[in-house]
Amino acid sequence: IEIMGILTSLEKRGVIETANRVLGICSQIFRRAVATGKAKSDPCRDLRGALAPAQEKHHAALTTKDGARAVMRALDAYQGSFVVCAAVRFTALTFVRQVELRFATWDEIDWEHMVPLSRQAIAVLEEMRRVNGTQPYIFTGQGRRRRPISENTVRCALQSMGFAGEMTAHGFRSMASTLLNEMGWRSDVIERQLAHVDKNKVRSAYNRAEYITERRQMMQAWADFLDSL
User: Fold this and answer.
1) Is 195 helix (H, G, I), strand (E, B) or coil?
2) CB within 8 A of 95, min separation 6: which ones?
3) How far apart are the first and last CA of the chain?
4) Rounded to an integer, what distance in angstroms lies between the CA atom of residue 35 and that of residue 30?
5) Is the torsion defined by CA of 132, 104, 229, 79 positive or negative?
6) Which residues contact 147 (CB under 8 A, 6 or more apart)?
7) What is the pLDDT of residues 137-166, one digit of tens each?
8) Count of CB atoms situated within 10 Å of the CB of 211
9) Lower CB density within 10 Å: C or N end of the chain?
10) What is the pLDDT of residue 209?
């Protein structure tokens, strides 16, 4: 009830995207509490349909092979901190939403690869575990080891590389969607990897299981493609 009150207040102010983001963060906190035995369930799970969907915004993205090549070469030459470089590379390899990247914790990683992660993405995680494995979050902010990187970390890194107005963190999702379609991967599989969830829960669960093998293959092909650039 308290969470819904906060969300309703944000919704009335017209900040729909913020309300949805807050709901997502609260849900991650509760999932963490469930994993550590401090809560029995995630109450936010039942609130997902209660909010108006966030209005779609344009996110600058480079969606051609040449654009992807420019970004990956710039990343190889980038002189940012180890954590920032790892965060940008992991975003490129997995095209996850930034809220999922920032608040990812070590206990969410399935090292047996049940989640579709490429060898390259796993290598990034292994590097991060060596330098950051004792911290709660995988990608922690500079000077605040127990807190995640800021929501602008990847965007600012891309700006520093010279892509201001051309590429954002969210842009990696558009880049992957466009190029994977051009590479011949099935749109249903791409959409599932992008976590564009089917509103039918039964069908959504079925599709997630049905596509897991193809998603593993696709994510490895995507990582190999980025390396080839």
Assistant:
1) coil
2) 172, 173, 175, 176, 177, 193, 194
3) 50
4) 9
5) negative
6) 137, 140, 141
7) 999 987 666 789 998 999 999 999 999 999
8) 19
9) N
10) 63
